[in-house]
C-alpha cells in the first residue's frame, strides 16, 4: 500500500523499517513467555513437542503441597514487604523533600545504594547480618518468614522512595499553605493534600515493591532458613531435576498474578494522576 | 481609635532572611471594610508582608494586630484571615463543592448548614452551576473564582489576595478588576491585595501602599499617589513621569521657582512649596499634563523665561511616536538633548496626523502641573 501521507521528520513510526524493528523487539521480548505458557497446556511430559491440550499440569501443580506452600509464602512475604516498604519509602521521600539537614546530599545518594549493589553481595551481607545477630530461625509460622521479609524490605523500599520523591517534586507548595490557611492543622494538611498528591507514586511504588519481592531469588536464597521456601526458590529446586510442564503451569500462574496486579495498579495510577493534574 | 476602626495594624515590622532585609520597619493601618493594595516592583517585600499577615512568615521584629489581637503566636490555621493564592491552589483531587466546603469543617459548621453556605459562596462568584466539576475541567478564571469562594465562605475578617489577576489574559483581567471590586463591595470584607501592576492597584483599591526594597514609600488613595507622589520612586513607579533635577530659587506663598540645569532654565510653580532654598530637588511632570504645540520653522526657540504668565515652556523636536489608539505618546528631544515624554489624547479620528517625526514643537505646561519632590 502506498503511503499517502508524507512523513514528517519525527514521524518515525511511519517508516516500514521502523515498524519491522518494533515488531522484532516485541517478538524477542514475548516469545519465550508465550512458549512457556503454551507448553503449560501440553499433554506430554517433555517440553519439546506439542501433543494436545490439557489442564492436568495445573491440577498437578495445585496438588503439589510444597509448591502451594511456597506460593502462599511468597504472596504473604510480598504483601507484608509492600506495606512496610510503602510506609518507609514514602516517609523517606517526604523527609528528603521537605527538610534541610546536614549530609542530606550524600544520604540522598545513599538511598539508592541497595538498588545498585549486586544482589549476590547483598544476599551474602544479609546472611552474615542475620548470623551475627544470632537471629532465631526456628520461629513458628508465619514468623519464620521475618528474615526474608526484612531482607526484601531493605531492597524494595528505596524503589518506593525514589518514585514518591519524583512525584513530590511536582507538588505546588501553595496547596499545603492553602489547607493551613483554611484551618487545617499541619497533620490534616498532610493527610488531605499531600497524601492525595503522592498517591500515584505510592501505587506505583507498591507495585514495584510487590513484584520485586515476589520474584526475588538471590537474596531470598541467602535469607531463607531451613523451613522457609518461597516460590522462586521452589521452582529453582524443581528445575534442577527436570523442567516439567508442572513448572510451566506454576510460572504461568505467577505471570497472571503479576499482570493482573500491574494492570490494576496502572489503572489506579492513571485515574488518580488524571485527577491530580 | 478613630470612628473608622482599624482591622489590621502593622507596627514597625521587620523581616530579615539572614543578611537580607525583606521588610524594613513597616508601619501600616488598614480600616475595616477597605480594599487595600500593596504595590511595588518584584522583590520589594510586599508578598513577604502579605505572608506575615497570613501567618506563613513571622516578623523578625515588630507586631501585627488583626482586629486588635496580637498575631505573634497564632499559626495560619487559627487566624481570622483567608488567602487567594497566586496559583489559586485549588485542590485538584476535590470537586469545586468539596474545595469550598473544605475550610468549613474546621469551623464546626453543622453539615446541614454547610451545603447552603457553600452554594451561596459559589453563587457570589457565579459558579453555582459548576459545583460538581473537577478543577482540571475548568479555565484559569474559573479556578480563581473557586479560590475566592473557598476563602470567602469562611467569612474571614480579612481576605488576602496574592497577585490575583497576574495569571489571567488581558481581557479577562480587566473584567475581573470590576468584578473583584464589586464583590468586595457586596461582601463588605476587608481585602488586602498584593500586586506589581499599578493599573490594577489604582483601578481597584481604596488605598494603596507603595513599597520599595522593603520600605514603605507612601500610603495614599490612588489619585493622591498619582497627583501628589511623596518621592521620586512613587512618581516614577505610578504611571510615567518626566523628572528634572533642580534647585529651589524662589519659595513664596503664591509661587515658587526651581532652577533646573537639565531643563535649561527655570520651572515655575503657581503655588508655594515648603522646602529649604538652595536644596537639590526634583521636579516631576506627567506626560499628559504637557501641551504639544507646533513651532514655526526658523523661529527662535523660546526660553522658559518667555513663557506666558503662570506657564512653563520648552522647545524640542519629535523623536519617537508611539500610537496607542486612544492616545499617542511623543518622545521629544529638548534643545539641550534632554528627552521628555508627552502624551496627547486622540480626541478626533485625525488627531494623530497633527504631528510627525522631526516636527519642531513647543511644550507648554501650567504652573500647577509639576510636582516638587525632595527625595
UniProtKB/TrEMBL annotation, chain A:
Family classification: Belongs to the binding-protein-dependent transport system permease family. CysTW subfamily.
A cellular-component GO term for this protein: plasma membrane
Residue ranges the record marks as coiled coil: none
Membrane topology summary: Multi-pass membrane protein
Keyword Glycosyltransferase tagged: no
Protein name: Inner membrane ABC transporter permease protein YdcV
PROSITE patterns with a match to the protein in the record: ABC_TM1 (PS50928)
Entry annotated with the keyword Transcription: no
Keywords recorded for this protein, A-Z: Cell membrane, Membrane, Transmembrane, Transmembrane helix, Transport
Main location class: membrane
Automatic annotation (TrEMBL), chain B:
UniProt family annotation: Belongs to the ABC transporter superfamily. Spermidine/putrescine importer (TC 3.A.1.11.1) family.
The keyword Hydrolase is annotated on this UniProt entry: yes
GO cellular component: ATP-binding cassette (ABC) transporter complex
EC number: 7.6.2.11
Record key words, sorted: ATP-binding, Cell inner membrane, Cell membrane, Hydrolase, Membrane, Nucleotide-binding, Translocase, Transport
Name of the protein this chain belongs to: Spermidine/putrescine import ATP-binding protein PotA
Natural source organism: Candidatus Phycosocius bacilliformis
Domain ABC transporter: 8-238
Domain of life assignment: Bacteria
InterPro entries in alphabetical order: AAA+_ATPase, ABC_SmlMolc_Importer, ABC_transporter-like_ATP-bd, ABC_transporter-like_CS, Mo/tungstate-bd_C_term_dom, P-loop_NTPase, PotA-like, Transp-assoc_OB_typ2
Subunit organization: The complex is composed of two ATP-binding proteins (PotA), two transmembrane proteins (PotB and PotC) and a solute-binding protein (PotD).
One Pfam match: TOBE_2
MF-aspect GO terms: ABC-type polyamine transporter activity; ATP binding; ATP hydrolysis activity
GO biological process terms, semicolon-separated: putrescine transport
Catalytic reaction list: ATP + H2O + polyamine-[polyamine-binding protein]Side 1 = ADP + phosphate + polyamineSide 2 + [polyamine-binding protein]Side 1
Role played: Part of the ABC transporter complex PotABCD involved in spermidine/putrescine import. Responsible for energy coupling to the transport system.
